[in-house]
Amino acid sequence: MTVSATQVAQMVATLADLRATTVALETYSGESAYGPIYAASVNKTCYVVPARRLVRNAEGLEVISEVTIHADPADEADFTAESRVTIATRISTVITVSAKNLRGHVVDLEVACS
């Protein structure tokens, strides 16, 4: 089945419309002698799915994700492993980030969080 460029654009627009939840993201910057370092908090609009699922972390170990965030692909550099995400009052940690492609176009960024 082939998908036209117009259909890809329509799918991207639909995914953008679904992103209605604002989350606070603190991008992980590294470690210091006193613990992890995070960038200043920025707000991102996302589609949040509060569902438990099994994912693999950066080390390849199977871990449980409590929430999945679907974000704008342009924000991929901000959503790094170990970053902190605040959804309402719940603070989560990014486990893994996966870009979803359609005909060579990145249409969605799937972020699994603890």
Explain what this protein looks like in three dimensions.
The chain is mainly beta and 114 residues long. The protein has one domain: Thrombin, subunit H. The chain has a six-stranded antiparallel barrel. The radius of gyration is 15 Å and the shape is globular. The termini are far apart. 18% of the residues are buried.
What's the overall geometry?
globular
Provide the structure class: mainly beta
| Structure summary, number of beta strands | 10
Tell me about the largest β-sheet: 6 strands, antiparallel, barrel
Q: Uncertain spans, ≥5 residues at pLDDT below 50?
A: none
CATH architectural type: Beta Barrel
Number of helical regions: 1
* Residues in β-strands, percent: over 45%
Summarize the structure.
Helices cover 12% and strands 54% of the residues.
Please specify the SSE layout and strand pairing.
Elements: H1 5-18, E1 21-26, E2 28-32, E3 35-38, E4 42-49, E5 53-56, E6 62-65, E7 67-71, E8 84-87, E9 90-102, E10 105-113
Antiparallel strand pairs: 1-4, 1-8, 2-3, 4-7, 5-6, 7-10, 8-9, 9-10
Task: Fill in the keyword field for this structure.
about 110 residues, mainly beta, Thrombin, subunit H, six-stranded antiparallel β-barrel, two-stranded antiparallel sheet, globular
